[in-house]
Amino acid sequence: MNEPARDASTWIAEASHELRLPIANLKLLIETLLDGAVDDPQACKRMLSRANQEVERLERLVVDLLSIEQAADSRHELRCQWNVLEDRAAYAVDSLKALAGERRVSVHVEIEPGWLVFASPEQLDQVLLNLLENALKFTPEGGQVWIRSGQDPGSFAVEDTGIGLSASEIPKIFERFYRVDRASSRGSTGLGLSIVKHIVDLHGAKISVLSEERRGSTFVLQFPGPQRMGRPCAPF
Ligand code: ADP
C-alpha cells in the first residue's frame, strides 16, 4: 500500500474505533432500558442522562472529524490574508465565554495593538478556538488564561495556569486521538491539537509547548510572513 493510502486507512480505522465506543455504550444503555429499567423512574433518568453524554461525545467527534476534513480540503487553495490578532482573539474569547464562565476561569487578552498574523482567517480562528478551549478545559476553577502577542512578527501564545503536562506527554499530544488521561478526559476527543498541528504545517508555521505539571502550559505559535510561507498561498 502506498503512503497516502496507508495513512487514509489508518485514519479510518482510528476514527471508527473512537466512534464505536460511544455507540456501544448507547446500545447497552438502550438494551438495559428495554429490559425493564425503563419502569424504574430513577434508573431511567440516570441512563437517559448517560445516553445524552454519549450523544454529546459522538457530536464532538463528528464536528472534529469534519474540521479535519475541511482543513485538509483547503490544501490546494490556502487563502491567506493579514489578520488583526486582537480581532481574531476577541472572536475566540466571545465564542468560548460560556465555557469560561462555567469553568470559572478568567481570560485575558494582552495583544499589542495592530499585531498582524498572515494566515487563512478561518484556520487561524480554528487554531485559537482549539487552544483556548483546551486552556479552559484543563485549568481548574479560579485559574487564568492569556492570549498574548509574541516577540517576533506573526507570533502569539495561549497560556494557562492549568494542570500542565509532563515532559513525556508533550511529544504525544499532537497525535490524533491522544488524550493524557482517557478515564477523566473532560469531554476530550483527542483531535483538537492534531487539527492545530495540521493547520500549522499547512501554513509553514511552527508550534511549541512549554509546560509544567500543576503549573500550566504555554502554546507558542509562529506564523511566517507571506514571502516565507514555503508553499503557494493565494491572497484574497
Ligand atoms: P481534545 O480535542 O480532546 O481537547 P487535544 O488533541 O486538543 O484533544 O488535546 C490532546 C490532549 O492533550 C488532551 O486530552 C489533554 O490531555 C492534553 N492537553 C491539551 N491542551 C492542554 C492544556 N492546555 N493543558 C493540559 N493538557 C492539555
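^ adenosine-5'-diphosphate complex. The two ends are 38 Å apart (CA to CA). Residues 79-235 form a domain with the Heat Shock Protein 90 fold (CATH 3.30.565.10).
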